[in-house]
Design a protein that fits this description.
Shape: globular
CATH superfamily of the largest domain: Type I PLP-dependent aspartate aminotransferase-like (Major domain)
Bound molecules: pyridoxal-5'-phosphate
CATH architecture of the largest domain: 3-Layer(aba) Sandwich
CATH topology of the largest domain: Aspartate Aminotransferase, domain 2
Number of helices: 16
Radius of gyration: 23 Å
Strand order of the largest sheet: 4-10-9-8-7-5-6
CATH class of the largest domain: Alpha Beta
Number of domains: 2
């Protein structure tokens, strides 16, 4: 007869005379190499100022749900209509996730199964377009996403895509150009969404244009979903036909994607995600989305979203005072795009030097960039992650000073090391969620 104790995962299954072999050892024992790398990434995330605007820290609760046994279950289909048995629990998880997300955004319908932001967008094409149909989105160099029809993406290869840009004068989205291209090409979908745009998106103006040409308006709020929920950016719900988003950026959920839409499009969207594009949903991710949606509905999340925008505004002011040139002259949201042309440092050199100094951002093209995309003139940064660890405007002032020093002398290794040490000391006062130091 087996003892109940044998069912525990660390029970030695051989007699103690031979070396104990654990039936189901923890990661550190089973795979010390990966365990060490996970730990090193934890420390990197704890000790550096993470300014990549699409990144964040998830809570311990979100991490736990992501690392749960729900990863073991197949559940193709939707709650109550699955292609496998044994969905007693999973159906409840997905229903809870959907109910919470719908309440959070005030949406009529949501599909939480897309594997990430890019598949969510692909599903929208599948729902509303045939191959070769015209589509319109913000061009990549102006701050759009690959999946909005950029030429190297499947969305630029399988559809006839047109790209609008920003105005040369103020680098804001050129709505006159959106209207002109929409009238000329009659797109099936107009995308409104950005990855490197520091200003508010005017969903209502896009709606007018979409109505005029009979296009579906799709708002991709991947970057700003957390700001929308927190009430610091206008919501496209009720304006756009479809809203797509990642769940892991400002929203602070697991890596995933979602599609929110009006009830009238629910069937088309659901069919496009499954069986159109995907197989089994990632149920561990679905559970973590439910957790993140619960967290995002709490008052503390609103304060976080307000802090993200306030920190970005103050950081932008301080960077301007340090002599940096900012695309559009500042920011309304979580993101800042610096044009380094006047500092005579390419974006890549600046980004590398900053990383060595413990300040992590990414090099990025600026509008009408004279340099190549792989070696552009700018860097992109954002305040979501540092706001999640509770930093505020005092820290933004120090950050701007450090950035200016490092960018002024990107080859000065001693300076980089000194700043890295100061950054690390600051970080110790702001332990990030989800990481035990
Ligand atoms: C990040 C992002 C995506 C893609 O998300 P992935 O999860 O990386 O596939 C799509 N659209 C926009 C606007 C984004 O910012």
């Amino acid at each position: 007869m087996r003892l109940a104790r044998e069912e525990t995962h660390d029970y030695p299954v051989r007699p103690m005379s031979s070396p104990p072999v654990l039936r189901d050892p923890p990661l550190a024992t089973r795979d010390p190499e990966i365990a060490r790398l996970v730990r090193e990434e934890e420390l990197r995330e704890a000790h550096k100022l993470r300014l990549i605007p699409s990144e964040n820290y998830v809570s311990r609760a979100v991490l736990e749900a992501t690392g749960s046994v729900l990863t073991n279950k197949y559940s193709e289909g939707y709650p109550g209509r699955r292609y496998y048995e044994g969905q007693q629990i999973i159906d409840q998880v997905e229903e809870l996730a959907c109910a919470r997300v719908k309440a959070l955004f005030g949406a009529e319908h949501v599909n939480v199964q897309p594997y990430s932001g890019s598949p969510a967008n692909l599903a929208v094409y599948l729902a509303f377009c045939q191959a070769g149909d015209p589509v319109l989105g913000l061009a990549l160099p102006a701050g759009g996403h690959l999946t909005h029809g950029w030429n190297v993406s499947i969305t630029g290869k399988y559809f006839k895509s047109f790209g609008y840009g920003v105005r040369p004068t103020d680098h804001r989205i050129d709505l006159d150009e959106v209207r002109r291209l929409a009238r000329e090409h009659r797109p099936k979908i107009i995308w409104c969404g950005t990855t490197a745009y520091p200003r508010v998106l005017e969903f209502d103006k896009f709606r007018e244009i979409a109505d005029e040409v009979g296009a579906k308006l799709c708002a991709d709020i991947s970057h700003i979903a957390g700001l929308v929920v927190g009430g610091v950016h206008p919501s496209p719900i009720g304006i756009a036909d479809v809203v797509t988003t990642t769940t892991h950026k400002t929203l602070r959920g697991p890596r995933g994607g979602m599609i929110l839409c009006r009830a009238e499009y629910a069937k088309d969207i659901d069919r496009a995600v499954f069986p159109g594009l995907q197989g089994g949903p990632h149920n561990h991710t679905t559970a973590a989305i439910a957790v993140a949606a619960k967290e995002a509905s709490e008052p503390e999340f609103k304060r976080y979203a307000e802090r993200v925008v306030e920190n970005a505004r103050v950081l932008a002011e301080c960077l301007l005072a340090e002599g940096f040139s900012l695309v559009t002259g500042g920011t309304d949201n979580h993101l800042i795009l610096i044009d380094l042309t006047n500092r005579n440092v390419p974006g890549k050199v600046a980004a590398r030097a900053l990383d060595r100094a413990g300040i992590v951002c990414n090099y990025n093209s600026v509008p009408f960039d004279k340099r190549k995309p792989f070696d552009p003139s700018g860097i992109r940064l954002g305040t979501p992650a540092i706001s999640s660890r509770g930093m505020g405007t005092d820290e933004m002032r120090r950050l701007a000073k450090w950035m200016s020093q490092v960018v002024s002398a990107p080859d000065d290794e001693a300076l980089g090391a000194r700043v890295a040490a100061e950054v690390r000391e600051l970080c110790q006062n702001f332990p990030p969620p989800g990481i035990v130091i």
